[in-house]
Amino acid sequence: MSIDRIDDLEAFVAIVERGSLTAAARHLRRTLQSVSRSLSALERNVGASLIRRTTRRVLPTDTGSAFYQRIKPALDTLREAALEAAQQSDEASGRLRIGASVLFGPAYIVPVIAAFMDRHPKIEVELLLSDRFVDLMESGLDLAVRIGTMPDSPLKTRRLGSLRLVVFGAPRYFAAHGRPEHPRDLMKHVCVIRTADRSPTSWPFQVHGKPVNIKVAGRFFTDDAAASHAAVASGLGVGNAPLWQIRPLVDEGAVELILADFETPAVPIQAVFPATNARLGAKTRLFTEFLAARLKCENL
C-alpha cells in the first residue's frame, strides 16, 4: 500500500475520534469537502471500506477500527517529530515567501515580519503584495494572509482574527447634511464610490438579522482606497471600508463611524498554506504560529 498523504490519515483519525465528518472538518480547520475527499482517497489506497455511516453518526468498520489502532500511535509520533523540528528555531533557515494584500501587508504584516526576522536571523523573507487571490503553488508562496471567506480548496487555514466593514463620514458632512440613522437613509445622501469594489454602488448591511443591500449614489468615484478615504475625510460624502483601513482617521477625529448596529458580520482574516501537515517547513510553521500570536486583529 502506498500512502503519501499524511493529511488523509489525519482526516480518518479525526473522523473516528469526533464521530462525524463535519466535526472532523471543524477540528482540523478544513472544509467538509476536503475531509470527505481525504477519506475517499484513503479508502481507495487501502482497498477497503473504513467508515460506515448511520443515521446519527459515522463509525469505523472492523477493518477501520483495526487500521485506526495501528496508525494512531504512528501519526502521534509524526506530529511530535514535526513539532520538535519546528521548535528548533535556531535550525530554521532559508527564504520564506509570504503573500498579503497591498494595504494590509505594509501596515500589519511587515511589523510582525520584522520581529520574526529579528528572532530568527537565518531566515530571509520575501513579501509579495497583491489584492488578487493568487495561487500559492503557482506563485511559490509558502503562505498568504487572506481577508474574506475562503472558497473550497485543499489549502490549510489558521484563523487570525476578523475585520469590521464600517460606514463613516466627516463631521463637516454630517453637520451640513445630517447623520444617517438607518441604512435606507443612505439613499438620500451623497456617497463616495470605490469603483474597485465588486459592487461599488450596493452596500451590504444586516437589518433584523437579515442581509440587506442598499443602493447608493454619489459624485466622486475612485478605484483607489486611500483616495476614497481622503475624499470622505474632506467632506465629499459618506464612505464604507474595512475599519483597519481608516483607523488613523477615526483616531484623529477626521471621520466618525455610523450605522454600527447594522454592520454585516465581521470578515475573517486567516493565514493559508499548503495542506502538508507534518511535512510543513519549519520556517513556515514557525512564522504561522508567530503571526497568530502577534497579529491582534479581532474585529479590527
Please report the number of helical segments. 10
Mean pLDDT: 85
What can be said about the biggest beta sheet? 6 strands, mixed
Radius of gyration: 24 Å
Shape: globular
CATH class wording of the largest domain: Alpha Beta
Terminal CA distance reads 49 Å
Order of helical and strand elements: HHHEEHEHEHEEEHEEEEHEHEEHE
Strand content range: 15-25%
Question: CATH homologous superfamily of the largest domain?
Answer: Periplasmic binding protein-like II
Compute the number of strand runs.
15
Report the CATH architecture of the largest domain: 3-Layer(aba) Sandwich
* Poorly predicted runs: none
> Helix amount, in percent?
40-55%
Report the CATH topology name of the largest domain: D-Maltodextrin-Binding Protein, domain 2
> What structural category do the secondary elements indicate?
alpha/beta
Provide the number of structural domains.
3
Give the strand line-up of the largest sheet. 4-3-5-14-6-15
Describe the secondary structure blueprint for this structure:
Blueprint: H1 6-18, H2 21-28, H3 32-46, E1 51-53, E2 58-60, H4 62-87, E3 94-100, H5 104-119, E4 123-129, H6 136-139, E5 143-147, E6 156-163, E7 165-169, H7 171-177, E8 192-194, E9 202-207, E10 210-215, E11 220-222, H8 225-233, E12 239-242, H9 243-252, E13 256-258, E14 267-273, H10 282-294, E15 297-298
Parallel strand pairs: 3-4, 3-5, 6-15, 8-11
Antiparallel strand pairs: 1-2, 5-14, 6-14, 7-12, 7-13, 9-10
Helix pairs in contact: 1-2, 1-3, 1-4, 2-3, 4-10, 5-10
